[in-house]
Structure formats: C-alpha cells, structure tokens
Amino acid sequence: MKMDTAKHCRAAESFVREFMHRFWSNDFAFFEKVLAADFVWIAAQEDQYRLDRDESVDLYRNICQSTPEVVLVDESYEAIASEGGVTVVTGWYYGINNPEMGSAFGSRQRLTVILRDLVGDQPFEIVHLHMSNPVTISRKGEYFPVGFSREAYRYVRMLASQYSDRESIEVREIGGATHVLRTFDVVYLEADRQYTMIHCLSKTLRARQGIGELSKKFPADRFFEVRRGSIANILHVISWDADSVRLTGGVEIPIPVRRSMKVREKIEQLRQLVISGGGSLPAELGAAR
Questions:
Q1: Overall CATH class of domain 168-276
Q2: Among positive and negative, which fits the CA dihedral 7, 8, 12, 15?
Q3: pLDDT > 60? residue 17
Q4: Which of 219, 217, 179, 216 lies closest to 200, judged by CA?
Q5: pLDDT value of position 175
Q6: So what CATH class is 3-132?
Q7: Potential cystine with 232: which of 13, 144, 181, 188 (Cβ 3.0-4.6 Å)?
Q8: Could you give the maximum distance between any two Cα atoms of the chain, in Å?
Q9: 252 C-beta neighbours (distance < 10 Å), count
Q10: Are strands 178-182 and 186-192 parallel, antiparallel or unpaired?
C-alpha cells in the first residue's frame, strides 16, 4: 500500500470514529452536515431498511429525542478499500449509557461506512451507513451458548459498574459554593496553580483544593494521570497514540515522551475494567472462546 493511500485510510478511520462518537452524543447538526445528497442508511432495526437522506434525518432526529447519551468504551475501525475517491470503512463498537439518565445498558454494534472524498475543511461525506446488532446466541461450533453466557455475565458486571458511577463527590468551589458531582459527568481534572479546574460535560468548576489532594476523591479505576497536572476519566477517552490522549469535547492532552508507554498501558488496563464491569471474569467463564 502506498504511503499516501495509507495516510488517506487512517484519515477515513479517524473520520468514522469521530462520526460515531458524535452520533451517540446526539450531535444532530454534524450528522446532517456530513450526509451526501444520495445517502442511504440501513439501520439496526428490522423496519429501518434502505432509508434515503430525508428519512435518515427524520430517524436520527427521533433517536436524539429518545435515546440517552452513549459513551463508546471499546471500538475498532478499519479502512478495507480506497479507490476512485471512495473509501469503505468497517468496524464495531461497544457503548454504555450515562446511568444518570435513569437506566443502564450496554450494546455492541457493527457497521460499514462508505465515504466519498471532498475538497475543503470537510474531508469526506457519507454515502452509505449500515449498522447491525449481533443476534446469534450460540456461536459456530457451540452446542451450548457458552460464549453468550460469558457476554451476559460481563453485561451484568458492566451494569453494576455503571451504577457505581452514580456515587456523588462533593467539591467546594473558590466562591464558596459546594457542588455534588457524579464521576460519569467529569471529563478531566486540570491543575491551576494551587487550585483545580474540574471540566465536566456541561460546566467547568474551579475547586479550592490542589489536584493532588482533590484527585483522591475520584475512583482510581476511572481516573488516571496523563501528565503532571492533568487527570482524565477513562470513560471519556475517545482516542490516543504515543503523543496525546483525546477526550470528549475534542480536548487533547499531550503525553510526555517518558510517560508514553505507561499511559497507554494504563488506558488499556482501565478500559478492560470498564468493559468487564470492574474486575476479572471467573476462570470457567474467562476461559470460554
């Protein structure tokens, strides 16, 4: 594969990753903006087959109104073909919702996205989107759905973990007001001299405590140090590489060279804890394939 083609494919994968995060953050304006005039959507439900652009916009409007915000905690995207200004990206993701919405769920979905190249600030437009839910209980070669049992166990553990994120944390702001925060709502902490900036989904607070003392209030299986003075919530990590970590809202935190390997290992460790529901599986289920 030529270098320029490889670079183009990576850009397409990044675009699809951003699209899916914005899709489940109910970003209606972005969804409508990136759809091509001849867009076709095959959605996950049985009656959502071959929707044109207008039908897709109407469906997504309903999704925004009825579906709580979803955070993608595990995902993979791969550009499998790119030729003649068209790129095909396939992938899957595992999403969980914000338990503060009054419910908790997790789901894995698969997708195929066909992109058409554009010139300008927007690199691609989406021509086709196909989303599907795995529904088979027994896997190939299984006489009993052992694999499904393992998934079900992990799902229950994940729900328990989500509800544990409802634990409140009291933070006192510089002005004297006390705020009750949920761990899910906090994106990252940032040192501000002797104070700490707490960046949440809907607001930013300036706490009276320094980041070292304040960070002790936050669960160690959710928050990790990216660099000195910056602590991120694993549930809001969108992507990362050797140089930086990207969070919900487009925030990018640089990783010091000397900490690069340690930070990436920590991210993988915490992601697995979130996906498994906060702990390792019993041996009899963990061994299932």
A1: mainly beta
A2: positive
A3: yes
A4: 179
A5: 82
A6: alpha beta
A7: 188
A8: 63
A9: 12
A10: unpaired
Beta strands in 145-263 (DSSP E): 168-172, 178-182, 186-192, 195-200, 204-207, 223-227, 230-233, 237-240, 244-247, 252-254
Give domain limits for the chain: 3-132, 168-276
Helices 260-276 and 146-164 cross at an angle (nearest 10°) of: 110
Neighbours of 61 (CB within 10 A): 14
Q: What is the pLDDT of residues 158-193, one digit of tens each?
A: 545 544 555 678 888 988 889 888 887 899 999 999
Within 10 angstroms of residue 6's Cβ, the number of other Cβ atoms is: 12
- Give counts: helices (H), strands (E), the chain: 7, 15
Cα–Cα dist 78/274, whole Å: 23
- pLDDT band for position 221 (50/70/90)? confident
The predicted model scores a pTM of 0.54
Residues 6+ away with beta carbon under 8 Å from 6: none
Average the pLDDT over each of 19-23, 67-71, 158-162, 212-216 and give the range with the smallest value.
Answer: 158-162
Report the Cα 174 to chain-centroid distance in Å. Answer: 32
Question: Is 160 in a helix, a strand, or coil?
Answer: helix
Alpha helices in the chain (DSSP H): 3-24, 28-34, 53-66, 146-164, 211-214, 260-276, 283-286
Where residue 38 falls among pLDDT bands split at 50, 70, 90? very high
Identify the bridge partners of residue 182 per DSSP, sorted by sequence position: 168
3-state DSSP helix/strand/coil percent for the chain, to nearest 5? 35, 35, 30
